[in-house]
Amino acid sequence: MKELFTYLLASALWSGILWGFYISFLRKETFFHFNRIFLLLGLLLIATAPLLRFHYSVSDGRVSEIVAQSAATLESINSVRFAHILLYCYAAVATCIVVRYCFLLGRVGRIIKKYGADKIIHTPDFKTSFSLFGYVFMDSSRKVPPMEKEMVLQHELAHIGQYHWIDLLAAHILCVFQWFNPFAWLYLKAIRQNHEFLADAAVVEIGHSKWLYRAAIINDQLGANVCSFAHSFSHHRVNRIFMIGRSPSHPLKKTVVLLLLPLLGLFCVAFAQPVYQITPPSANEQMGVYFRASGGGGVIPNNGMASRASGIGIDPKVILVNRYAQSGRVVFRSSGSVPDTFSAPPVGANNHPPVGTRARFLFQSSANAQTR
Asked: Are residues 195 and 119 in the same domain?
């Protein structure tokens, strides 16, 4: 669970970094196709960069005990319960968002079913013109000049021809998992806005007048947002009017993306994980292991190794993690709900920890033992 929260945090940081970079350096430039690639690769980076694992070495003879104490703290009952509550709330909100998306798509799907197999649907059911996946919806209740209607249609067909719905689908998936992150929603808005710039450029490139097209954008009524997956002609009108008349940006401005490389390196350093180099124990110390008592009478050998013959079953999946500096003692640290009441007598007595006890212990040169 800790790994999930760490992943979500790192992913949220990356979304903020990439959105801020796009707004600062790329949004007002006219290489819209390059910006689209940048935003798409950004989605991939947001999803995969937190999965990268980088490590650095730490050498200290006492770090193993510190790690063990930290792990015990993180695994306390209260922390685990609180983490589960957060997880349930997170999943509940994400589920509600998915249900809302399905409801909106279902509404549009019923309209598509109503009009059959037509890819261009003229309907008064929606008070705006928009495209969704492979369909164009034109508002038939508005009376507009044929030229303006043609430009609106070409705009929506550009969205379909350039497969903009793929970008929106990926961005919405990000928002489902990052619903708590405002940068995820701003990133979605940036992708949608760039799509509008691309569609506007496509309309102008096929020969329509910039001035007439600007007038068509201004004349279009600001209709309600039908579905967050749709591209509406009324979206981002002010910014689109500005970008249509903007001079082409110099291609060398694309090299600004190289500034992300230091940020990537800084991110790797910030989320690097330590690898502890544990100093070998001295001659009168031996490292402890994890074990689970399996019942039956048994003894704890002085060599620090519990065997089947002693009646204590060893859990082979857990590695050495702890050492204890008190010379001449064998220390048991029980975890879970088992009370810490066991005290081992000298070696050779028929005794063992309570059945089911999961303990972390260290054998040293003495035969005495004490629980913690």
From this structure: yes
